[in-house]
């Protein structure tokens, strides 16, 4: 019926009797089948003329790049990123090196370049076939390799920016063009291209090295890593130190290690900021330290070897102990401070009760309502001040409140109800170990406390009373903030010195609460954050519970550094892009996400493996 070749003479019985291939060949020779008896034409070499000359499947030449832009599922650039369709086919030899988050370049014909990021990777069937079968599975189980030729490997891309040359300077703009189909894409491996594409500044305060998926991005330059820095020059806009920084990370994530390394850069020799009178002044850093770790910045890190030091010098990173480091130790009752883990100078101080007149909430605790707070501020403190003068002590104030005649007089006059009077008295008791201790008042130590280029550490680890710790931290920070924001300051040293106010465990002091005290604190710090850039005041907040920091303060933070966080609420609260948010719980120690819209695109970094100063109690 139809010429089917060898199949036309197929004999089921004879085939069933046949065994291995060798047996078939033997039977054929013995029976003289048509295949063997037919005289087939042969070529010069004795081969059948029906044989085809093998053709190489690999194209000639050398591959450039890792693949090409493909249009099988569309090629579209749109203002709405959800409407953007940009995909690339990755060739077999490049597939194992591709990672989500990697940066790629796709050139336009006129010399401009699309800078993009991989957001998804997938294998797709090369041919229409079902590989979910027993045969495919068992074949795969018996081999050590996958035949990549059976599959397509496609990367989904997110356009980040268009790079273009402007009189020899590489610049970026928003994505406004679609690349051509079959455009060859390559890995971004040039430092200038990557920094321009991600809007990263060339100079500034060093934070870490650019990474993708926990691995540092490598280039062909020397050093091969890409340093990430925060803008710190008025020519590039306001220094970001005065637009406030938040470091969030769980226990063991490396947040104190990282914070020390960043603060060390602000204390580097030659790092100054211009003041209104034309002077260039170094930064004063005041760090509140609940775990007593930051005074160690006075000392060198013994584990920082010469090779590592040379690498730091090549990259312009300040390192080594900072000699101008002083621990100002609050005197609280009989609590003693032990400092065998650092060699920084120690100075004791106390909080004078006179500071309460400017900040009444310092003695209010956290339990006064509006009515009670009003009685304290409008009646009791003014009357005490009139009777005892500005130098009245806390002990004299409690004696003043113990007077039953005063209580009766104020009640009968209708100025303070007796129940309100009693409530105020109860709340202000219990601060006898905080105010007016046997040490110099902080108001007499301002010149030593705030030093251009100096690091002041206020340890509170030795204080077991949480209420006392809050009073001290808030008293000192309020003194600094009030003087910075004042148009008629009492202490010019504070007003005329660039200041970084660091606060570890910031969630304990800037929390969202309903008490009068919390409201006053939040308003003060919010105002400080708003005016920071003008007054050269930067907040440097460190916390493991960012969700507990009040929104009014949080909204003023420009640079957010996120290390490993395991709590879902904490991760949500830091407001980083979702593609980076998903990586936070899996980051190793020292890995971080930096979200600083006025500095760069959101990026992953790896901090330095070694602390630039002494760190740890070993």
Automatic annotation (TrEMBL):
Question: Compositionally biased, Polar residues: which spans?
Answer: 32-49
Q: Which domain of life is it from?
A: Archaea
Q: What is this protein called?
A: DUF87 domain-containing protein
Organism listed in the record: Natronorubrum halalkaliphilum
Question: Mind telling me which Pfam families this protein's record contains?
Answer: DUF87
Residue ranges of the region described as Disordered: 1-65
Could you tell me which residue ranges the Helicase HerA central domain spans?
Answer: 239-458
């Amino acid at each position: 019926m139809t010429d089917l070749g060898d199949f036309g003479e197929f004999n089921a019985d004879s085939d069933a009797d046949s065994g291995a291939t060798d047996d078939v060949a033997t039977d054929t020779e013995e029976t003289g089948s048509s295949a063997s008896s037919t005289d087939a034409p042969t070529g010069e070499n004795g081969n059948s003329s029906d044989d085809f000359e093998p053709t190489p499947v690999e194209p000639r030449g050398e591959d450039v790049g890792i693949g090409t832009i493909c249009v099988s599922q569309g090629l579209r650039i749109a203002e709405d990123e959800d409407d953007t369709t940009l995909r690339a086919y990755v060739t077999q030899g490049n597939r194992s090196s591709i990672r989500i988050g990697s940066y790629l370049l796709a050139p336009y014909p006129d010399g401009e370049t699309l800078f993009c990021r991989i957001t998804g990777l997938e294998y797709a069937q090369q041919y229409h076939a079902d590989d979910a079968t027993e045969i495919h599975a068992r074949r795969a189980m018996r081999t050590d390799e996958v035949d990549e030729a059976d599959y397509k490997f496609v990367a989904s891309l997110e356009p980040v920016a268009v790079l273009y040359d402007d009189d020899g300077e590489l610049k970026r703009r928003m994505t406004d063009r679609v690349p051509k189909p079959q455009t060859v894409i390559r890995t971004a491996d040039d430092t200038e291209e990557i920094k321009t594409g991600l809007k990263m500044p060339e100079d500034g305060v060093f934070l870490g090295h650019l990474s993708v998926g926990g691995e540092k991005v490598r280039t062909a330059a020397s050093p091969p890593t890409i340093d990430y820095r925060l803008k710190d020059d008025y020519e590039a806009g306001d220094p970001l130190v005065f637009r406030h920084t938040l470091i969030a990370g769980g226990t063991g994530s490396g947040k104190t290690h990282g914070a020390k390394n960043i603060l060390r850069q602000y204390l580097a020799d030659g790092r100054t900021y211009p003041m209104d009178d034309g002077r260039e002044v170094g930064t004063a850093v005041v760090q509140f330290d609940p775990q007593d770790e930051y005074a160690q910045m006075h000392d060198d890190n013994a584990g920082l070897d010469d090779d590592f030091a040379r690498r730091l010098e090549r990259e312009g990173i300040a390192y080594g102990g900072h000699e101008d480091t002083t621990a100002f130790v609050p005197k609280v009752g009989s609590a003693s401070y032990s400092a065998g883990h650092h060699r920084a100078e120690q100075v004791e101080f106390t909080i004078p009760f006179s500071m309460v007149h400017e900040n009444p909430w310092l003695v209010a605790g956290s339990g006064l309502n509006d009515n009670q707070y009003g009685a304290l501020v409008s009646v009791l403190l003014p009357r005490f001040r009139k009777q005892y003068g500005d130098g009245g002590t806390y002990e004299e104030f409690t004696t003043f409140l113990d007077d039953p005649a005063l209580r009766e007089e104020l009640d009968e006059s209708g100025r303070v109800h007796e129940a309100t009077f009693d409530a105020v008295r109860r709340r202000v008791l219990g601060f006898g170990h905080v105010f007016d201790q046997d040490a110099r008042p902080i108001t007499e130590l301002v010149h030593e406390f705030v030093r251009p280029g100096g690091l002041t550490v206020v340890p509170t680890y030795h204080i077991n009373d949480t209420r006392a710790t809050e009073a001290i931290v808030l008293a000192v920070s309020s003194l600094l903030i009030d003087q910075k924001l004042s148009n008629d300051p009492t202490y010019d040293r504070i007003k005329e010195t660039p200041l970084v106010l660091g606060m570890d465990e910031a969630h304990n002091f800037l929390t969202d609460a309903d008490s009068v005290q919390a409201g006053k604190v939040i308003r003060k710090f919010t105002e400080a954050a708003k005016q920071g850039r003008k007054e050269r005041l930067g907040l440097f907040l460190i916390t493991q519970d960012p969700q507990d920091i009040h929104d009014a303060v949080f909204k003023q933070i420009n640079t957010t550094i996120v290390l490993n966080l395991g709590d879902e609420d904490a991760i949500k609260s830091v407001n980083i892009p979702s593609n980076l948010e998903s990586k936070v719980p899996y980051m190793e120690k020292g890995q971080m996400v930096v979200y600083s819209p006025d500095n760069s695109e959101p990026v992953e970094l790896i901090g330095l493996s070694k602390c630039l100063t002494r760190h740890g109690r070993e």
